[in-house]
Amino acid sequence: MKTIIHKANTRGHLNFGWLDAHHSFSFGEYYDPAKIHFGALRVLNDDIIKGGMGFGKHPHDNMEIVTIPLEGALEHKDSTGGHGVIKKYDVQIMSAGSGVYHSEFNHNKNEDANILQTWIFPREKNVTPRYNQKTFLPEERINKLQTIVSPDNKDGLWLHQDTWYSLGDLSKDSKISYTIHSIKNGVYVFLISGEVTINDVILNKRDAVGISETENFSIKANADSEILLIEVPMTF
Questions:
Q1: How is domain 138-233 classified at the architecture level of CATH?
Q2: Which CATH architecture best describes the domain 12-135?
Q3: Are 175 and 216 in contact (CB under 8 A)?
Q4: What does the DSSP 8-state code read for residue 142?
Q5: DSSP 138
Q6: What band does 143 get if pLDDT is binned at 50, 70 and 90?
Q7: Which of 17, 51, 159, 190 has its CA 20 to 30 A from that of 211?
Q8: What is the DSSP track for 38-57?
């Protein structure tokens, strides 16, 4: 098993007043040559957006984008006609493909929104842009992993990549295991809250570990914890 550990306090941090952002990988004004991507996972941003503020219309292309709200609500509009408001327990996907313009704003005027946004390199370029969102029942992730994104569209939303996203709400002392779908894949484990041990690696809030060159691994919750797993091809 190969692991790479990213502690929370080593992430890039930029605060623009209206936006307080932490970057797990190089993004915008933050650049670290050791943190460009993990396999096909290019971006994991942990953003706090002030009430009523947000990102005006801007372009994307050839990237698969997944947005997971942790607190508050985010309003989205794009040039495909996609429009929606997402909140905790919702997940939004957008295939930028051949090119799309979109905007994202905090839907509420008087409270902050906290979102995780991830970008995945696609398996093919210049696909037709698309947008979708779905609500996932939180009780279906208690002490187990709930698949929210998969390439076959059976368990949730899908992307143009052999990628699986899973969320889990783990009670203290619970233990689960994860089997990687392909030996060519790796898993980026991001701890949203709590404390877990993964094969002797201890993660605290907002820590992450990239795991590859193995078939499976176990996760033990040392405290009540919320966890995100992103399985991606290591070469693409």
A1: Sandwich (2.60)
A2: Sandwich (2.60)
A3: no
A4: B
A5: G
A6: very high
A7: 159
A8: BTTEEEEEEEEE-TT-EEEE
